[in-house]
Write a structure and sequence with these properties.
Order of helices and strands: EHEHEEEEHEHEEEEEEEEEHEEH
Helix content: 10-25%
CATH topology: Metallo-beta-lactamase, Chain A
Bound molecules: zinc ion
Strand order of the largest sheet: 3-4-5-6-7-8
Strand content: 15-25%
Distance between the termini: 55 Å
Radius of gyration: 18 Å
Shape: globular
CATH superfamily: Ribonuclease Z/Hydroxyacylglutathione hydrolase-like
CATH class: Alpha Beta
Number of helices: 6
Amino acid sequence: MAIWICKTCGAHFPPNDAPPASCPICEDERQFVPEGGQEWLAREALVTTHANEWSELEPNLIEIAVSPAIGIGQRALLVLSPHGNILWDCTAILDKKTRDRILELGGIKAICLSHPHFYTGMVEWSEALGGVPILLHQADLAYVTRPSAHIQPWQGDRHDVLPGIALHRLGGHFEGSSVLEWQGGASGKGALLVGDTIHVVAERGWVTFMYSFPNLIPLPAREVRRIADRAVEIRFDRIYGPWRDKFISSNAKDSVARSAERYIRLLES
Ligand SMILES: [Zn+2]
Ligand SMILES: [Zn+2]
């Protein structure tokens, strides 16, 4: 039996002889099913043609991305801390070389997810690294396509993972959309790992907030205001978005505040 992966979004499905009939993440109104219908990749074949790439973004922060890119080009971020390592978001495959490298660094204490578009291979990663707890917000549990006993849903608006590392549910893009506060990031000024919850845009120093990115569906002004107000309460100077060129190296808190203000002004004018 094969582990089937949705080619469009990278979601994994339970072992089965035949591919799934549909992908609930792609059929959700925030994503899309491509022209010509859904295609499926068998995990075992995929690892012969694709591998993980490893690059350091700053001290104690490593980007792990699949090359060539699959799904929506998801990457994971490995945060190294004195209290243990955390994987933020996930990719569709974990190859042996990367697994061995992570184990040499002491393994990981938890896999923390921003939202369903990054769930991808989280169960594969967890199992390959010894049954690592998968922390995703309870509000988005319905989008899990490969159930596992390692999934530990969390509730509420804050979940402390390790000293100096905490999940915050800001919502918006998904009801459970979360960010990861990493106090050790940006030379101790704090970094926020945001996924799509706060989305870094092309113009340097600005972000946006969307219900759907591919279908260009905005969020209501009250939601944007609420997200910005919550972000103010978190200590950070830097933001890492979902892809390598999506980051704000300093004064990122100001970026969130002025971007929210502009968004609300345009929605309400
Ligand atoms: Zn999909
Ligand atoms: Zn998303």
